[in-house]
Amino acid sequence: MTGARLKTGVGNCPLPAEAWDRYHEPLKHRLAVFRRSYAHNPAARTVADVTEREISLMHRYADFCSNEHVVLVLAAQDAREGSVTC
Fold first, then answer.
1. E strands, 1-86, where?
2. Per residue in 14-41, pLDDT tens?
3. b/e per residue, 34-52, with b = 16+ CB within 10 A?
4. Backbone angles phi, psi at 50, to 5 degrees
5. What stretch of H or E contains 30?
6. Residue 62: which domain range?
7. Domain total for the chain?
8. What's the rounded mean pLDDT across residues 2-23?
């Protein structure tokens, strides 16, 4: 394999609110455990604070914002065979 290059097909799709609820609800519960486990660590507290703020903002402004998945397809080209694999 001689290297990778970005193929021209890039796609994106918005995630439905239900998907974020299924992600955020368990995360909120795990954050409580995380906070207890790393209470002595200022950086960990900052990560938990920022994560909780993001969850709060996503719920508060759900009608005005969304998150999307962006799909980038990388292809590696084998110079000897001239083939492209993904």
1. 4-14, 68-78, 83-85
2. 778 888 889 889 999 999 999 999 999 9
3. bbeeeeeeeeeeeebeebb
4. -65, -40
5. helix 17-37
6. 4-85
7. 1
8. 70
Question: Who has greater pLDDT, 8 or 47?
Answer: 47
Total count of residues recorded for the chain? 86
Q: Say if residues 85 and 75 touch (Cβ distance below 8 Å).
A: yes
Q: Does the structure show a pLDDT above 60 at 7?
A: no
Give Cα 73 distance to the centre of its chain: 16
C-beta separation of 69 from 12 below 8 A = yes
Q: Tokens 């998150």 appear where?
A: 67
Q: In what order do the strands lie in the sheet with 4-14?
A: 4-14, 68-78, 83-85
Q: How many CB atoms lie within 10 A of CB 66?
A: 14
Q: Which CA distances in Å does 32 have to 21, 22, 42?
A: 17, 17, 15
